[in-house]
Amino acid sequence: MSIKIIKPGVLATLQDAGRWGGRSMGIGCSGAMDIFAMKSANYLCANDDRQPIIEINVPGPQILFRQDAVISLTGADLAATINEKAIPFWRTIIVKKDSVLQFKQAVSGARACLAVQGGWAAQEWLNSYSTHLKLGAGGYRGRALQKDDIINFTANKILITENKVLPWYISQHELDKIYQPRNIIRCIKGPEYDWLDENSKHTFEENDHTIQNQSDRMGYRLKGKSLSIKHPMELISSAVDSGTVQVLPTGNGIVLMADHQTTGGYPRIASVIKADLPKMAQLNPGQKIFFKIVGIKEAEDTLISMQEQLAAIRSACRFQLKKYLQY
Amino acid sequence: MQALGKNNFSGFIEAVPAYNSLAIFYDVVTIKIIYAPAITAFEWVRSFMEQLISEMKTTTGNSGPVINIPVYYNGADLIAVATQRHLSVTELIRIHTAIPYRVFMIGFLPGFAYMGKVDERIAVPRHAVPRINVQPGSVGIAGFQTGIYPLQSPGGWQLVGQTPIKIFDINKNDPCLLKAGDRVQFISISKETFDQLNEY
């Protein structure tokens, strides 16, 4: 069973929940930028959350299904069509052999996740299927998908004989808990927060920061009212993480994302809370954000709520899918 | 880091040592359930680590294994560095190979070992404008640090030589040759030996 890439789009890669345990060797986590969308996409296909998804950017790929498949699309709404017929996001979809999936434009958000029942066949490296682009390891040959690539999946046993969107969905109410309000990004103070002068501490929270064009899977560059460090000193390199907000010598911030380096030498003034990283991952260049500093308790509580929400989605999907699939 | 290796906890993911810090990555949900229903996972991990550190015996930095790394000293900056430091190339090589260097941390790139400290006589600042392409295996100096580029990458370190050894290899079970705490002894080799040993 397989799909074939007719047109590659931009930087479509296989990603899972990330590669853990390599940071002390300088190997970063990688993984899906939007973990909520990645896990939901898997649950909608009756998978556990270890299966890799295809992370899709704009312009998206054009994909031929060479056999029947159960798929789902989550994350950004990229105006997806199957055989030129619009299909919804956050739903389970039955796709028949010889159908073509494509993406017309970004309606909202930045990147989508495409899952298939049983998962895409991918190369595992250091216990993860995620593509490490710099090392050329994991995922599909360690690289972004190209024209004519064939990605396999295990046979899907479907009790339906036509292209069909299954009749339940992850509600807007559930999604709003994760993705709204879209431009408020919560963070905790970083180890070097107090290096900011008093004015800059106010600026950081009260002024907006615009996401710059040079933003990618490694990090989002921000531009706003300049932030200044009290006594400019060079920080001795230390660990950084997805969500770490650093201040560059220009006075602008950068938020590190999934493909970040493992260590850095710029002051770490804040960390975006884990539960707001999916929201961050769906922002596009030109959008403005406000940072809001919260306590560690709130950061942990919101992460736990997100995990509980995912667990509920998982059991609801399992219950519904029993009627349609054999797995 | 070593003390943690023997005594880690449920929910522990990984630890990243750096020059003067150790970052602990942990799973908030697991720790909340198992250890810390009443306090934050952060508070629990912090007190766990404080307890561990208070029980640690201080050790000197010379305990790691010594790994010999052959280097053909032909780097693009070799002559410039020697000239800048008023040394002959032979003296520069002798000083760079005189002592084993401690691996302080791995970072910047997969497998990139920050090592030191180099002798003051050969310490030179990095290039103001980094090179766009540094070849894998290049051995460089930046301030009091020395290091080896594991992959082709942009880089600002002053390049003095080239090792024929792959210090990072995705095809190995343990892809990274060096670990924080190891000691590295550079050994000067000829062009002929370099060609014989070349793994790239």
Structure description:
The complex is a heterodimer of chains A (327) and B (200). Chain A is of the alpha+beta class. Chain A has helices at residues 35-44, 172-179, 198-206, 277-281, 296-321; strands at 2-7, 13-15, 53-56, 62-65, 69-77, 80-82, 85-86, 91-95, 100-103, 108-116, 150-152, 157-158, 164-165, 184-189, 209-211, 219-224, 238-239, 244-247, 253-256, 263-264, 268-272, 288-293, 325-326. Chain A has 5 helices and 23 strands. In chain A, the strands form 5 sheets. In chain A, strands 14-21-18-19-16-15-22 form a 7-stranded mixed β-barrel. A 6-stranded antiparallel β-sheet of chain A has the order 7-6-9-4-1-11, with no helix packed on it. In chain A, strands 2-3-10-5-8-13 form a 6-stranded antiparallel β-sheet, with helices on one face. In chain A, a hairpin with a 5-residue loop joins strand 18 (244-247) and strand 19. Chain A is elongated. The two termini of chain A are 16 Å apart. The relative contact order of chain A is 0.18. By secondary structure, chain B is of the alpha+beta class. Chain B is built from 6 helices and 11 strands. In chain B, strand 4 (101-106) and strand 5 (113-116) form a beta hairpin. In chain B, helix 2 crosses helix 3. The model of chain B has no long low-confidence stretch (mean pLDDT 93). The A-B interface holds A 20-28, 125-126, 132, 134-137, 236-239, 241, 261-264, 274, 296-297, 300, 303-304, 307 and B 13-21, 23, 25, 28-29, 32, 40-43, 105-112, 114, 150-151, 170, 175-176, 179-180.
